[in-house]
Design a protein that fits this description.
This protein is of the alpha/beta class. It is 42% helix and 21% strand. The strands form 3 sheets. It has a 5-stranded parallel sheet, with helices on both faces. The chain has a 4-stranded antiparallel sheet with strand order 6-7-8-9. The radius of gyration is 20 Å and the shape is elongated.
């Protein structure tokens, strides 16, 4: 996920940043409400960790502006030392999706963010994907093409999963790059190289290439082989 942490306590922000980064997430941090709102609206994040007591703009106001003014539905998990029912209700009324009281376990923060992210995109369960002759099990990371096992590198798996989730739809280069690298993509050739490797492995297993390059637009997974 791409996670935005809006937290004015440097120690807490650093702990969250280091933990999420070590877990493979792309992370950005804001130390006040005004900066946090700007990043939340413009940054394209998958989830936001939001402190309630912030300088320049409190978390409840930030969340309300994000929902009502920016019309942004990015999942928000509020972290705060305020543990009364009134505080929690204020957070939910402002548009928060979940609420966690400090001190907290880092693993629980991640688990709650992952659950919010999955619900947002209707992926409450890691269901097996099937498209044409391809089958992909996200739980075991097993791929089969025309009944044969296909061994793929992690980034190739992410590309394939994104294509299989929306078969026959053209996904832009930017969509695929964001799915795999977040905003850390450095070279324009990286996606092309990984798609080349993915296609090579699929052709080797199934005898044809189910990925179509739509010139100037992106790539799509074609669910039927050419006759």
């Amino acid at each position: 996920m791409r996670i935005l942490i809006i937290e004015d306590d440097p120690a807490i922000a650093a702990n969250l940043y280091d933990f999420f980064e070590a877990r493979g997430h792309a992370v950005d941090v804001a130390g006040d409400g005004v900066t946090g709102l700007h990043l939340a609206v413009t940054g394209g994040f998958d989830a936001i960790v939001l402190d309630l007591g912030l300088p320049r703009m409190d978390g409840a106001t930030l969340c309300r502006k994000l929902r009502e003014d920016a019309r942004d539905d990015t999942p928000v998990l509020m972290l705060t030392a305020r543990d009364t029912l009134e505080d929690k209700l204020q957070g939910f009324a402002g548009g928060a999706d979940d609420y966690l009281v400090k001190p907290f376990a880092l693993n629980e923060v991640e688990a709650r963010l992952l659950a919010l992210h999955k619900r947002r995109f209707g992926r409450v369960t890691d269901r097996v994907l099937a498209a044409g002759d391809l089958v992909f099990d996200p739980a075991s990371l097993a791929v089969r093409f025309r009944g044969k096992d296909v061994r793929l590198m992690p980034k190739c798996l992410r590309i394939l999963q994104a294509l299989m989730a929306q078969p026959d739809r053209v996904l832009s280069r930017r969509e695929l790059e964001t799915e795999v690298w977040g905003d850390e993509q450095e070279t324009g050739d990286a996606l092309r190289s990984h798609i080349h490797m993915l296609r090579r492995e699929l052709v080797g297993a199934g005898g044809y290439d189910p990925i179509e390059n739509v010139h100037g637009l992106g790539y799509r997974l074609v669910t039927r082989a050419d006759s």
